[in-house]
Amino acid sequence: MESGYLLVNSLLKNQYKKYWIEDPVEHHKNIIGEYHVSSIGCNNQHLPPNKHAGPCLRQTFYVYVDPMENTNQTEGNFHIGRILHAEAQRIYRLNHDASIAEYPLGRKFFIDDEPVIMLGSMDITNESFSDKPYINYIDIVDFKTASDWTFPKDRDDKSPTHFNQVQIYAYIYDQYNLNHKYNIIRNLHVVYLAKHNLYTGIQPIKYDWTNAIYKYTNFINRIKYLHKQLKLRELPKAEPNKWCKFCDYRQRCYADVIEEKDVPVITIKEVEDLYMRETGKSPKWRGNYTKGFETYKYRFKVKT
Protein backbone atom coordinates (compact mmCIF):
# COMPACT_ATOMS: atom_id res chain seq x y z
CA MET A 1 0.00 0.00 0.00
CA GLU A 2 1.27 3.47 -0.80
CA SER A 3 2.22 5.74 2.08
CA GLY A 4 0.42 8.99 2.85
CA TYR A 5 -2.90 10.21 4.13
CA LEU A 6 -6.38 10.45 2.59
CA LEU A 7 -5.97 7.04 0.94
CA VAL A 8 -8.90 5.54 -0.93
CA ASN A 9 -10.19 2.65 1.16
CA SER A 10 -9.87 -0.05 -1.49
CA LEU A 11 -7.82 -3.15 -2.20
CA LEU A 12 -7.96 -2.43 -5.94
CA LYS A 13 -4.55 -1.61 -7.40
CA ASN A 14 -4.07 2.08 -8.17
CA GLN A 15 -3.93 2.28 -11.98
CA TYR A 16 -3.40 6.04 -12.09
CA LYS A 17 -0.51 5.91 -14.57
CA LYS A 18 -2.42 3.70 -17.01
CA TYR A 19 -5.33 6.09 -17.48
CA TRP A 20 -4.01 9.57 -16.66
CA ILE A 21 -0.48 9.81 -18.07
CA GLU A 22 -0.26 10.46 -21.81
CA ASP A 23 3.52 10.57 -21.77
CA PRO A 24 5.28 11.04 -18.42
CA VAL A 25 6.37 14.66 -18.15
CA GLU A 26 8.60 16.22 -15.52
CA HIS A 27 6.83 19.51 -14.86
CA HIS A 28 9.58 20.93 -12.67
CA LYS A 29 12.90 19.78 -14.06
CA ASN A 30 15.25 20.04 -11.13
CA ILE A 31 18.43 21.30 -12.75
CA ILE A 32 21.06 22.91 -10.55
CA GLY A 33 21.03 26.59 -11.50
CA GLU A 34 17.26 26.70 -12.14
CA TYR A 35 15.08 27.39 -9.12
CA HIS A 36 11.31 27.64 -8.78
CA VAL A 37 9.64 30.15 -6.48
CA SER A 38 7.35 27.46 -5.05
CA SER A 39 10.22 25.22 -3.91
CA ILE A 40 12.42 28.03 -2.50
CA GLY A 41 9.99 30.53 -0.95
CA CYS A 42 10.96 32.48 2.14
CA ASN A 43 12.45 31.51 5.48
CA ASN A 44 9.64 30.95 8.00
CA GLN A 45 11.79 29.56 10.80
CA HIS A 46 10.85 32.50 13.04
CA LEU A 47 7.41 30.86 13.28
CA PRO A 48 6.49 27.71 15.21
CA PRO A 49 6.68 24.67 12.88
CA ASN A 50 2.91 24.11 13.09
CA LYS A 51 2.24 27.63 11.78
CA HIS A 52 3.78 27.28 8.32
CA ALA A 53 4.26 24.78 5.48
CA GLY A 54 7.85 25.52 4.49
CA PRO A 55 9.29 25.32 1.91
CA CYS A 56 12.21 23.42 3.42
CA LEU A 57 15.50 23.88 1.56
CA ARG A 58 16.76 20.55 2.83
CA GLN A 59 13.81 18.81 1.19
CA THR A 60 14.43 20.80 -2.01
CA PHE A 61 18.12 19.78 -1.86
CA TYR A 62 17.12 16.10 -1.71
CA VAL A 63 14.84 16.53 -4.72
CA TYR A 64 17.77 17.90 -6.72
CA VAL A 65 20.50 15.45 -5.72
CA ASP A 66 18.79 12.11 -5.07
CA PRO A 67 15.03 12.33 -5.74
CA MET A 68 12.56 9.63 -4.82
CA GLU A 69 9.92 8.61 -7.33
CA ASN A 70 6.49 9.92 -6.42
CA THR A 71 3.82 7.40 -5.51
CA ASN A 72 0.72 7.11 -7.68
CA GLN A 73 -1.20 8.84 -4.90
CA THR A 74 1.15 11.84 -4.90
CA GLU A 75 1.15 12.08 -8.70
CA GLY A 76 -2.63 11.83 -8.62
CA ASN A 77 -2.85 14.73 -6.16
CA PHE A 78 -0.61 16.85 -8.38
CA HIS A 79 -2.66 15.92 -11.43
CA ILE A 80 -5.93 16.91 -9.79
CA GLY A 81 -4.34 20.23 -8.95
CA ARG A 82 -3.29 20.83 -12.56
CA ILE A 83 -6.78 19.93 -13.83
CA LEU A 84 -8.49 22.27 -11.36
CA HIS A 85 -6.03 25.09 -12.03
CA ALA A 86 -6.53 24.86 -15.79
CA GLU A 87 -10.32 24.77 -15.53
CA ALA A 88 -10.42 27.66 -13.03
CA GLN A 89 -8.16 29.70 -15.32
CA ARG A 90 -10.34 28.93 -18.35
CA ILE A 91 -13.54 30.03 -16.63
CA TYR A 92 -11.93 33.11 -15.10
CA ARG A 93 -10.75 34.27 -18.52
CA LEU A 94 -14.25 33.77 -19.97
CA ASN A 95 -15.68 35.98 -17.22
CA HIS A 96 -12.95 38.63 -17.25
CA ASP A 97 -11.87 39.99 -20.62
CA ALA A 98 -8.69 41.73 -19.47
CA SER A 99 -7.05 38.73 -17.83
CA ILE A 100 -4.05 36.53 -18.60
CA ALA A 101 -3.65 32.93 -17.43
CA GLU A 102 -0.38 31.19 -16.54
CA TYR A 103 1.83 34.25 -17.02
CA PRO A 104 5.46 33.02 -17.00
CA LEU A 105 8.04 34.70 -14.82
CA GLY A 106 11.74 34.10 -15.25
CA ARG A 107 14.84 36.12 -14.43
CA LYS A 108 18.53 35.43 -14.83
CA PHE A 109 21.08 36.67 -12.33
CA PHE A 110 24.62 35.66 -11.37
CA ILE A 111 26.16 33.96 -8.36
CA ASP A 112 29.95 34.30 -8.47
CA ASP A 113 29.80 34.91 -12.23
CA GLU A 114 27.69 31.77 -12.73
CA PRO A 115 24.28 32.30 -14.38
CA VAL A 116 21.27 31.24 -12.32
CA ILE A 117 17.61 31.34 -13.33
CA MET A 118 14.60 31.80 -11.09
CA LEU A 119 11.31 30.51 -12.44
CA GLY A 120 7.61 30.78 -11.66
CA SER A 121 4.24 31.58 -13.16
CA MET A 122 1.20 33.55 -12.07
CA ASP A 123 -2.10 31.72 -12.38
CA ILE A 124 -4.13 34.82 -13.25
CA THR A 125 -3.36 38.50 -13.79
CA ASN A 126 -6.47 40.65 -14.13
CA GLU A 127 -6.58 44.30 -15.25
CA SER A 128 -9.30 46.84 -14.50
CA PHE A 129 -9.54 50.54 -15.32
CA SER A 130 -9.11 53.04 -12.52
CA ASP A 131 -10.78 56.43 -12.17
CA LYS A 132 -7.46 57.99 -13.23
CA PRO A 133 -6.74 58.51 -16.95
CA TYR A 134 -4.57 55.81 -18.56
CA ILE A 135 -4.06 53.89 -15.29
CA ASN A 136 -4.77 50.16 -15.04
CA TYR A 137 -5.20 48.41 -11.74
CA ILE A 138 -3.86 44.86 -11.65
CA ASP A 139 -4.94 42.02 -9.38
CA ILE A 140 -2.95 38.78 -9.16
CA VAL A 141 -4.65 35.47 -8.39
CA ASP A 142 -2.86 32.34 -7.20
CA PHE A 143 -4.88 29.11 -7.03
CA LYS A 144 -4.24 26.47 -4.38
CA THR A 145 -5.92 23.09 -4.28
CA ALA A 146 -6.69 21.88 -0.77
CA SER A 147 -8.25 19.00 1.12
CA ASP A 148 -10.71 19.35 4.00
CA TRP A 149 -7.69 19.14 6.27
CA THR A 150 -5.62 21.89 4.62
CA PHE A 151 -8.44 24.29 3.68
CA PRO A 152 -8.19 27.61 5.63
CA LYS A 153 -10.65 27.89 8.50
CA ASP A 154 -11.35 31.62 8.02
CA ARG A 155 -9.94 34.84 6.52
CA ASP A 156 -7.35 35.12 9.29
CA ASP A 157 -6.06 31.56 8.82
CA LYS A 158 -3.49 32.67 6.25
CA SER A 159 -0.62 30.46 5.14
CA PRO A 160 2.68 32.39 5.25
CA THR A 161 4.03 29.95 2.65
CA HIS A 162 1.29 30.74 0.13
CA PHE A 163 1.30 34.51 0.67
CA ASN A 164 5.09 34.70 0.47
CA GLN A 165 4.86 32.99 -2.92
CA VAL A 166 2.26 35.35 -4.40
CA GLN A 167 4.15 38.39 -3.05
CA ILE A 168 7.35 37.22 -4.73
CA TYR A 169 5.45 36.77 -8.01
CA ALA A 170 3.95 40.23 -7.67
CA TYR A 171 7.31 41.88 -7.00
CA ILE A 172 8.99 40.21 -9.99
CA TYR A 173 6.07 41.22 -12.23
CA ASP A 174 6.00 44.75 -10.84
CA GLN A 175 9.74 45.31 -11.03
CA TYR A 176 10.58 43.72 -14.38
CA ASN A 177 7.42 43.54 -16.50
CA LEU A 178 5.23 46.59 -15.85
CA ASN A 179 5.34 50.18 -17.01
CA HIS A 180 4.65 51.96 -13.73
CA LYS A 181 3.37 55.02 -15.53
CA TYR A 182 0.27 53.11 -16.57
CA ASN A 183 0.01 50.05 -14.30
CA ILE A 184 -0.45 49.64 -10.55
CA ILE A 185 -0.68 46.29 -8.76
CA ARG A 186 -3.51 46.60 -6.30
CA ASN A 187 -4.58 43.29 -4.73
CA LEU A 188 -3.21 39.77 -4.34
CA HIS A 189 -5.63 36.87 -3.96
CA VAL A 190 -4.90 33.34 -2.80
CA VAL A 191 -7.87 31.26 -3.97
CA TYR A 192 -8.37 27.82 -2.43
CA LEU A 193 -10.13 25.09 -4.42
CA ALA A 194 -11.41 22.08 -2.48
CA LYS A 195 -10.45 18.87 -4.29
CA HIS A 196 -13.62 17.02 -3.37
CA ASN A 197 -16.47 19.48 -3.96
CA LEU A 198 -14.92 22.68 -5.45
CA TYR A 199 -15.72 24.69 -2.34
CA THR A 200 -13.83 27.89 -3.18
CA GLY A 201 -12.45 30.34 -0.64
CA ILE A 202 -10.60 33.60 -1.29
CA GLN A 203 -8.05 35.30 0.95
CA PRO A 204 -7.08 38.78 -0.36
CA ILE A 205 -4.34 41.16 0.74
CA LYS A 206 -3.27 44.56 -0.52
CA TYR A 207 -0.03 44.67 -2.49
CA ASP A 208 2.66 46.29 -0.36
CA TRP A 209 5.86 47.01 -2.30
CA THR A 210 7.99 47.36 0.86
CA ASN A 211 6.87 44.00 2.19
CA ALA A 212 7.17 42.40 -1.25
CA ILE A 213 10.78 43.50 -1.76
CA TYR A 214 11.63 42.08 1.68
CA LYS A 215 10.13 38.73 0.66
CA TYR A 216 11.88 38.83 -2.72
CA THR A 217 15.28 39.60 -1.12
CA ASN A 218 14.82 36.71 1.28
CA PHE A 219 13.92 34.46 -1.65
CA ILE A 220 17.07 35.44 -3.60
CA ASN A 221 19.28 34.85 -0.55
CA ARG A 222 17.76 31.39 -0.17
CA ILE A 223 18.57 30.61 -3.81
CA LYS A 224 22.18 31.64 -3.21
CA TYR A 225 22.42 29.47 -0.10
CA LEU A 226 20.83 26.40 -1.74
CA HIS A 227 22.93 26.82 -4.89
CA LYS A 228 26.10 26.87 -2.77
CA GLN A 229 25.04 23.75 -0.83
CA LEU A 230 24.18 21.91 -4.05
CA LYS A 231 27.54 22.76 -5.63
CA LEU A 232 29.36 21.63 -2.48
CA ARG A 233 26.97 18.69 -2.07
CA GLU A 234 26.47 19.59 1.58
CA LEU A 235 23.13 19.35 3.38
CA PRO A 236 21.36 22.64 4.08
CA LYS A 237 19.96 23.25 7.52
CA ALA A 238 16.66 21.47 8.17
CA GLU A 239 13.66 23.78 8.26
CA PRO A 240 10.94 22.10 10.36
CA ASN A 241 7.33 22.74 9.36
CA LYS A 242 3.93 21.17 9.87
CA TRP A 243 4.28 18.74 6.95
CA CYS A 244 7.58 17.17 8.08
CA LYS A 245 5.86 13.94 9.16
CA PHE A 246 4.59 13.42 5.61
CA CYS A 247 7.88 14.26 3.89
CA ASP A 248 9.32 11.46 1.73
CA TYR A 249 12.81 12.45 2.87
CA ARG A 250 12.15 12.58 6.63
CA GLN A 251 14.31 9.53 7.42
CA ARG A 252 17.31 10.93 5.56
CA CYS A 253 16.79 14.30 7.19
CA TYR A 254 16.74 12.88 10.71
CA ALA A 255 19.84 10.78 9.96
CA ASP A 256 21.62 13.79 8.40
CA VAL A 257 22.55 11.84 5.26
CA ILE A 258 22.19 12.77 1.61
CA GLU A 259 21.32 9.48 -0.09
CA GLU A 260 18.56 7.03 0.74
CA LYS A 261 21.02 4.12 0.82
CA ASP A 262 22.79 5.70 3.79
CA VAL A 263 19.76 5.77 6.09
CA PRO A 264 20.46 3.36 8.98
CA VAL A 265 17.97 0.58 9.63
CA ILE A 266 17.18 -0.06 13.30
CA THR A 267 15.04 -2.55 15.17
CA ILE A 268 11.74 -1.97 16.95
CA LYS A 269 13.58 -2.59 20.24
CA GLU A 270 16.03 0.26 19.47
CA VAL A 271 13.15 2.61 18.65
CA GLU A 272 11.40 1.59 21.89
CA ASP A 273 14.53 2.31 23.94
CA LEU A 274 14.96 5.72 22.33
CA TYR A 275 11.27 6.47 22.84
CA MET A 276 11.60 5.62 26.53
CA ARG A 277 14.71 7.80 26.99
CA GLU A 278 13.25 10.82 25.18
CA THR A 279 9.66 10.72 26.48
CA GLY A 280 9.81 8.78 29.72
CA LYS A 281 6.82 6.76 28.50
CA SER A 282 6.63 3.04 27.99
CA PRO A 283 6.22 2.10 24.32
CA LYS A 284 4.96 -1.31 25.42
CA TRP A 285 2.10 0.40 27.20
CA ARG A 286 1.20 2.41 24.11
CA GLY A 287 1.69 -0.56 21.80
CA ASN A 288 4.05 -0.88 18.85
CA TYR A 289 1.44 0.11 16.30
CA THR A 290 -0.65 2.77 18.00
CA LYS A 291 -0.93 6.15 16.31
CA GLY A 292 1.34 7.78 18.88
CA PHE A 293 4.19 5.34 18.49
CA GLU A 294 3.89 5.27 14.70
CA THR A 295 4.12 9.07 14.69
CA TYR A 296 7.24 8.87 16.80
CA LYS A 297 9.08 6.28 14.70
CA TYR A 298 8.37 7.84 11.30
CA ARG A 299 11.91 9.21 11.54
CA PHE A 300 13.44 5.77 11.19
CA LYS A 301 13.72 2.87 8.80
CA VAL A 302 12.58 0.08 11.06
CA LYS A 303 13.55 -3.55 10.64
CA THR A 304 10.50 -5.72 11.25
Walk me through this protein's architecture.
The protein has helices spanning 16-20, 37-40, 57-65, 72-95, 160-176, 209-232, 250-255, 268-279, 283-286, 291-297; strands spanning 34-36, 99-111, 114-129, 136-146, 183-194, 200-206, 265-267, 301-303. By secondary structure, the chain is of the alpha/beta class. Helix 3 crosses helix 6 (209-232). Mean pLDDT is 89; it is low at 1-6. Strand 3 and strand 4 (136-146) form a beta hairpin. The protein is globular and about 75 Å long. The chain has 10 helices and 8 strands. It folds into 2 domains: 16-247, Lambda Exonuclease, Chain A (Alpha-Beta Complex); 264-303, no CATH class.
Bin the strand percentage: 15-25%
**Alpha-carbon Rg, integer:** 22 Å
Q: How many separate domains?
A: 2
The major β-sheet equals: 6 strands, mixed
**Which fold name fills CATH's third level, the topology of the largest domain?**
Lambda Exonuclease, Chain A
**Overall shape:** globular
Structural class: alpha/beta
CATH class wording of the largest domain: Alpha Beta
Short description:
By secondary structure, this protein is of the alpha/beta class. Helix content is about 35%, strand content about 20%.
List the helices and strands and how they pair.
Layout: H1 16-20, E1 34-36, H2 37-40, H3 57-65, H4 72-95, E2 99-111, E3 114-129, E4 136-146, H5 160-176, E5 183-194, E6 200-206, H6 209-232, H7 250-255, E7 265-267, H8 268-279, H9 283-286, H10 291-297, E8 301-303
Parallel strand pairs: 1-3, 4-5, 7-8
Antiparallel strand pairs: 2-3, 3-4, 5-6
Helix pairs in contact: 3-6, 5-6
